[in-house]
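_Backbone structure tokens_
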Amino acid sequence: MPNKFHLLIFLLYCCLNIAPSYAQQTVFNVPSADVTEKGHIFLQQEGQFCNWDTNDFFSGTSFFDVGIGHNTEVGATLFNVGAPATQNISLAVGFKSAMPIPGLKEKFPEREFKFTVGSNILLGLEGNGVGNWTYAHLSGRVPKLNTRLTAGMSYGTKQIFGQETTAFIAAVEQPITKKLNLIGDWYSGSEHWAGYLIVGASYALPKKTTIYAGYQIPNSPRAGAPGFVVEVAKIF
């Protein structure tokens, strides 16, 4: 574990809208390239409702983030609140920065080329110790279609994924109207809880509120069960 973690940190160190939309912490599970604006607070509640024929029916994630400027936010996230109980509730405290890529920002401002990095200390609230979740990805928009494509890597310990996990992550966001986006994301891996392809949509409501709905398809039965994902987000 230490070798993988140190390698990821080293790689992060070395790496160092046509259609309007509100910020979001994740596309579904993959961290987005959006960051809460300075002085604003972002709240989001996610619920995953799995096949009721399985033992795992509901899993919830709660986000609280504050924009501090310089393309950065800090916050806390509560993971693995479930029914039945997961026995693995964890609190993540950390940051996310989404930095425009120098040169590309000036030459192609409409493409929104970004390098996003985030890291969280994971505090197991049910005797599961302390861990880490670190991720990094590149993103940008396709000309004319304005599709935002995201791809990168994620590393996390058992406090969030149930086991030490290094995964490839990818996401796509396609604006349809000023309020409606088709979205989807994916974690590689066949044995951890985030090993899903999730596809769906987001819709912006008045007063900086957005709702998300999607369907999750596991990479294998060991990753979990098919089911629905519903999220509500609001910016203050």
Observations:
- The chain has three helices and twelve strands.
- Residues 1-21 have pLDDT under 50 and may be disordered.
